[in-house]
UniProtKB/TrEMBL annotation, chain A:
Subunit of clathrin-associated adaptor protein complex 1 that plays a role in protein sorting in the late-Golgi/trans-Golgi network (TGN) and/or endosomes. The AP complexes mediate both the recruitment of clathrin to membranes and the recognition of sorting signals within the cytosolic tails of transmembrane cargo molecules. InterPro entries: AP1_sigma, AP_complex_ssu, AP_mu_sigma_su, Clathrin_sm-chain_CS, Longin-like_dom_sf. It is found in: Cytoplasmic vesicle membrane; Golgi apparatus; Membrane, Clathrin-coated pit. This is AP-1 complex subunit sigma-2. The keyword Membrane applies. GO terms for cellular component: AP-1 adaptor complex; clathrin-coated pit. PROSITE patterns: CLAT_ADAPTOR_S. Belongs to the adaptor complexes small subunit family. GO terms for biological process: intracellular protein transport. GO terms for molecular function: clathrin adaptor activity.
UniProtKB/TrEMBL annotation, chain B:
InterPro entries: Adaptor_Complx_Large_Subunit (IPR050840), AP1_complex_gsu (IPR017107), ARM-like (IPR011989), ARM-type_fold (IPR016024), Clathrin/coatomer_adapt-like_N (IPR002553), Clathrin_a/b/g-adaptin_app_Ig (IPR008152), Clathrin_app_Ig-like_sf (IPR013041), GAE_dom (IPR008153). This is AP-1 complex subunit gamma. The keyword Manganese does not apply. GO terms for cellular component: AP-1 adaptor complex. Residues 602-621 are annotated as: Disordered. It comes from Oryzias sinensis (Chinese medaka). It is found in: Cytoplasmic vesicle membrane; Endomembrane system; Golgi apparatus. Belongs to the adaptor complexes large subunit family. The keyword Nucleotide-binding does not apply. Transmembrane segments: none annotated. It comes from the Eukaryota. Residues 655-770 form the GAE domain. One of its GO terms (biological process) is intracellular protein transport. Its main location: membrane.
Length: 188, 775
């Protein structure tokens, strides 16, 4: 938390945007981990080797767990801004870019928690442990490439519900069944 | 072959393990079973096995042998298989491995699948981890889906397109037609992702930016509807309608309005409306206000709006929520240069944040406080900052001390106040003060002639209390050496003069020489101080004795000094008074500390002096010619090194680091020269020299620089903003770069100027820094 980033300028700020520095990625990754530092979910939106991911995870988890409750939800870590919030026994931790809005990221985290809560019915850490693949599916219906793809809670949950339904149905080679099922899906 | 154990069963089993070893054993057993199942090409249970593998991967165990299996799952017709397959691909594959390219065909087929959820899986995977090759191959499919009427797919395609553009920027053009009616959508998901797509395009291309400016009215309308519309249960968050979309629109407006008068004007009203009407009781409202403030500050808004924005930040500072306070301080730091007066009004609130418990908030409050110090508030601000210095964590002390010195130098209301402030810092945070402060302080003290007696007295008293803080001890030693005569004679006017004898003073200085607390540098300072006193005190014999003892010191530096001082006593006694004379006023050539000292003492006749003095440790060879006079002046300058005690801290000559040409285009040439004005190897002082070889002047010349985040950069005022034609003169400007992590120095520079009536702007990367400048 010691680095301060600065772009030195000797003149006023009202100038053309800097095209040489486009944003690389809003959200670079999201990690969920327990108070003992056990990873429960990891979603990476930037290409990194397994080794690099492990190193980042280890360091960041340590840094966040060392934070005291009175501290704010944001910290600077390497080149990134980290936004984190603890819900019960789980830490939700996102890495965002410099120009991103930390406060709305907190809302993104909260929305994801609400979705999990609605889906599992009063979600707890055990749900995420035993149904981790579902947690990923829900996340992938809410965010895509690190950005929100759907801002309506209802629509995200509906999509998951219907996708789950698809899993239940065994594919029929019979095209009639196939057609009927498509019609059912479309009408929802 | 029994059916492989179910996923949840495995998870339950693994969680019963009591030790790491037990867990590892279970995992290995299961992995072996999974491997043999894969070998048997078992289609039925492949999905279950891969899912288990993904769980074990999350625990930290290797799972690369499952990569191909993921591909097989993706190619399967079963939705369950595809779901797990794509998840596995996103977790186990990465674009650096060629294996991932095998996915391309499957994704292509799935993008055209009859079931939208399958298409969704493909879009999601491509948009999350698609490599450049994949993106190139599949961009056409994505573009098609961007035009579909199915909003479920359209929104995903938009974000997928964003990813494609990030990976392969040249493909941006092909998405342009599809953006035509994106904003007419009613579906919020599509709207949100469309705004993200438009933002990406505008940020990457000035042409796109110009093209999309016409969307401003439409965006304003959408935002207005969101604010004015009644309660919409589907998108409501604590009484606010779709805050995610609002924030995104505000950000796009920021980009469109920046630097453009018309667009900025068109959005003025809505920004004022959002700023005044948004509910601030919850985080979500403040998130929108925050984005609004950022937009207002970046576009060409009227001054009333800017003041409104700063006031919002001021209110944020008073918010109970520490996150809000943090965000406010960050934003204020960004605007303090351009809207200085407006930010000044919130000075007391900012200063209060120095007492905050959160480390990040404290740091920002400190930086902001220093930025707000001026001639009017210096006394009050310094009181607060010194109090902060006393009580803050060690990680802040160095920066705070440096900040205090800088501010004091710029705005000190009186010399006495200045000296007192320095004393306060040295005595309370002396060990954290940066090494380069010592020569700066010495110079300051030297130039405050009327305060010499007061200064040396205070420093002497401080030494009696505590000799552990090296910067304090070094400055004190130097002063006692210079002004010891004033100390003895009790000439202090500013406060009650103390009674002290020569022997007491020499006791203190000798005490420094023998103390374990003194660093080698400090010992050098005190030995030299003792030597200087030989012309100011009468106890010359005592001094001679001390000096001769150290002639056999095991510390080479100390030994050399002692030997040379001995020589002064024996062979060159006639030169001694002149050499040890009071130091003259020093002129600064750069605005941050002495890099060249104007020497006005030492009028010794040029006589031959043995040139057996090697250069002081760490000094480069000088460029002085090999004449008799050259030898003498070299000797004198070496002496002056010791006497001035800056041998390790000041370079009289620009050393070792070769200059470089950072930029040379269209007649504008920018050279960088380097200095190391301090022993702190982490600070590079770079002077830019801009020259113009064309036949017309370059006016309104502005040089800007940016460095990677691990560096800190300080840009001082330029010598002028006109670069005269035909190389008739240069514009110089000093940059200081702090490189604590000793990383390779890189810089991005931006030049703007007016030449022959038209505005010129250019950006360049400077990567050819000589290694000595950052190593």
């Amino acid at each position: 938390v010691q680095q301060s980033h600065c772009v030195a300028s000797a003149s006023a700020a009202n100038q053309e945007p800097d095209f040489s520095r486009p944003s690389t990625r809003s959200m670079q990754f999201m990690l969920l981990f327990s108070r003992q530092g056990k990873l429960r979910l990891q979603k990476w939106y930037v290409p990194l080797s397994d080794k690099e991911k492990k190193k980042i995870t280890r360091e960041l988890v340590q840094t966040v767990l060392a934070r005291k409750p009175k501290m704010c939800s944001f910290l600077e870590w390497r080149d990134l801004k980290i936004v984190y919030k603890r819900y019960a026994s789980l830490y939700f931790c996102c890495a965002i870019e410099d120009q991103d809005n930390e406060l709305i990221t907190l809302e993104i985290i909260h929305r994801y928690v609400e979705l999990l809560d609605k889906y599992f019915g009063s979600v707890c850490e055990l749900d995420i442990i035993f149904n981790f693949e579902k947690a990923y599916f829900i996340l992938d219906e809410f965010l895509l490439g690190g950005e929100a793809q759907e801002t309506s809670k209802k629509n995200v949950l509906k999509a998951i519900e219907q996708a789950d339904l698809l899993q239940e149905v065994r594919w029929q080679t019979d095209s009639f069944f196939h057609l009927v099922f498509q019609l059912i899906l479309r009408s929802n | 072959m029994p059916a492989p154990i179910r996923l949840r069963e495995l998870i339950r089993t693994i969680r019963t393990a009591r030790t790491q070893a037990e867990e590892r054993e279970m995992i290995q057993k299961e992995c072996a079973a999974i491997r043999s199942s894969f070998r048997e090409e078992d289609n039925t249970y492949r999905c279950r096995n891969v899912a288990k593998l993904l769980y074990m991967h999350m625990l930290g165990y290797p799972a690369h042998f499952g990569q191909l299996e993921c591909l097989k799952l993706i190619a399967s017709q079963k939705f369950t298989d595809k779901r797990i397959g794509y998840l596995g691909a996103m977790l186990l594959l990465d674009e650096r491995q060629d294996v991932h390219l095998l996915m391309t065909n499957c994704i292509k087929n799935d993008l055209n699948h009859s079931t939208q959820y399958v298409q969704g899986l493909a879009l999601c995977t491509l948009g999350c981890m698609g490599s450049s090759e994949m993106c190139r191959d599949l961009a056409g499919e994505v573009e098609k889906l961007l035009k579909t009427s199915n909003s479920y797919l359209r929104k995903k395609a938009a974000l997928c397109a964003v990813h494609v553009i990030r990976k392969v920027p040249e493909l941006m053009e092909m998405f342009l037609p599809a953006t035509k009616n994106l904003l007419s959508e009613k579906n919020h998901g599509v709207l949100h992702t469309s705004v993200v797509l438009l933002t990406e395009m505008c940020e990457r291309s000035p042409d796109m930016l110009a093209h999309f400016r016409k969307l401003v009215p439409q965006l304003v309308r959408i935002l207005k509807n969101l604010i004015m519309s009644g309660y919409s249960p589907e998108h409501d968050v604590s009484g606010i309608s779709d805050p995610f979309l609002q924030v995104r629109i505000l950000r796009l407006l920021r980009i469109l309005g920046k630097g453009d008068d018309d667009s900025s004007e068109a959005m003025n009203d809505i920004l004022a409306q959002v700023a005044t009407n948004t509910e601030t009781s919850k985080n979500v409202g403040n998130a929108i206000l925050y984005e609004t403030v950022l937009t207002i500050m970046d576009i060409k808004s009227e001054s009333g709006l800017r003041v409104l924005a700063i006031n919002i930040l001021g209110r944020f500072l008073l918010n109970n929520d520490k996150n809000i306070r943090y965000v406010a301080l960050t934003s204020l730091l960004k605007t303090v240069q351009t809207d200085h007066n407006a930010v000044q009004r919130h000075r007391s609130t900012i200063v209060d944040c120095l007492k905050d418990l959160d480390v990040s908030i404290k740091r920002r409050a400190m930086e902001l406080s220093f930025a707000l110090v001026n001639g009017n508030n210096i006394r009050g601000m310094m009181k607060e900052l010194l109090y902060f210095l006393d009580s803050c964590d060690p990680e802040f002390k160095a920066d705070c001390a440096s900040g205090v010195f800088l501010a004091a130098e710029k705005y000190a209301p009186s010399k006495r106040w200045h000296i007192d402030t320095i004393m306060r810092v040295l005595t309370t945070a002396g060990s954290y003060v940066r090494d380069d402060s010592v020569p700066n302080l010495i110079q300051l003290i030297t130039n405050s002639v009327e305060m010499h007696a007061y200064t040396v007295q205070r420093l002497y008293k401080a030494l009696l209390d505590d000799i552990s803080q090296q910067p304090l001890v070094q400055v004190a030693s130097w002063c006692i050496g210079e002004y010891g005569d004033l100390l003895i004679s009790g000439q202090c006017e500013e406060e009650e003069p103390i009674q002290v004898t020569e022997d007491e003073v020499l006791d203190v200085l000798e005490g420094l020489l023998v103390s374990n607390l003194s660093s080698p540098v400090t010992r050098g300072y005190s030995l030299t101080a003792i030597m200087k006193l030989s012309t100011r005190f009468s106890s010359v014999n005592r001094i001679k004795k001390v000096v001769s003892i150290y002639g056999s010191s095991i510390d080479v530096e100390l030994q050399q000094r002692a030997v040379e001082y001995n020589a002064l006593f024996k062979k060159y006694d006639h030169m001694r008074p002149a050499l040890l004379e009071r130091m003259p006023i020093m002129e600064k050539t750069a605005s941050n500390g002495p890099t060249e000292i104007v020497q006005t003492n030492g009028e010794a006749e040029p006589s031959v002096v043995e040139p057996k003095h090697p250069p002081p440790v760490g000094q480069p060879a000088s460029q002085v010619k090999n004449t008799v006079f050259g030898l003498v002046s070299r000797c004198l300058s070496l002496m002056a090194f010791y006497l001035f005690d800056l041998s390790k801290t000041v370079n009289f000559l620009s050393i070792g680091i070769p200059p470089m040409t950072a930029y040379n285009k269209n007649g504008l040439k920018i050279d960088f020269t380097f200095e190391r004005a301090n022993p702190n190897p982490n600070v590079a002082v770079i002077t830019i020299h801009a020259s113009n070889s064309t036949e017309a002047d370059m006016t309104d010349f502005v040089f800007q620089a940016a460095v990677p985040k691990t560096f800190q950069l300080q840009l001082l005022s330029p010598s002028s903003n006109v670069v005269p034609a035909l190389n008739q003169g240069t514009v110089t400007q000093v940059i200081r770069v702090l490189n604590q992590q000793k990383q390779q120095l890189r810089m991005r520079i931006k030049l703007t100027y007016i030449h022959k009536g038209s505005a010129v702007q250019d950006l360049a990367e400077v990567n050819n820094f000589p290694p000595q400048s950052w190593q």
